[in-house]
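quick one before i forget lol
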Amino acid sequence: MECLPDTAAFATKLKNTLIQYHNIDDDKWRVAKKTKDVTIWRKPSEEFNGYLFKAQGVIDDAVNGIIDHIRPGPCRLDWDSLMTSMDILEHFEENCCVMRYTTAGQLWNIISPREFVDFSYTVGYNDGLLSCGISLDWSEKRPEFVRGYNHPCGWFCVPLKDSANQSILTGYIQTDLRGMIPQSAVDTAMASTLINFYGDLRKALQKA
C-alpha cells in the first residue's frame, strides 16, 4: 500500500478544480469536433503542454444510471471500448478509491497501450453527480505499458430541465499520454475518443 495524501482534503481540492473548469466562460473554448448529439471543445491546459478538452451531450437516462456506468466498477469495463482492464487498488469509502486501468492502442497503434493509476471520487453536484479523478505517482509499474497521466478530469451529470429521463453529461479531460507521440496525434485521437465514449455509453444504457 502506498502513502496517499489526506484523502478528504485531496478529494475536495479535486472537486473544486473541476467546478472551476465547469465555470470557464464559453468564449475561452474552441470547437474541436462536433456531431449531431455531442460537441467537443478544447483550450490550452494550465497543467501540462497539451489541451483541456470539454465534451457535452444529452443522454437518454437518469443521472444515477449514467454515473454508475462511468465511475470505477464492473459496468465500465463492459462497455468502454478503449478500456482493457481495471482493478481497484484501494477503497476508502463507497465514493472514493484508487484504480489502475489499461487502455487499448489507438490510431492504428501509433499510440500504444497505456496504463493509468487514478484517484477517483464521486460526489453530489447541483441535483446531479460529479465523478472526477486525477492520476497518482504510483511506484509499481508494469514494463509492457507506458504509464500515462490524467491531470484533473471528471464528468458532471445533471438532469435535463423538464425531462426526468434525460441528463446533460459534460466531461473535462486532460490526459498526458507520455511516450514518444506527437502532440497533434494525441489531440486528434482525444476528440475522436470522446465522441466514441458517448456512443458506447448510449448503447450500454439502452441495453441496461
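fyi The chain has four helices and twelve strands.
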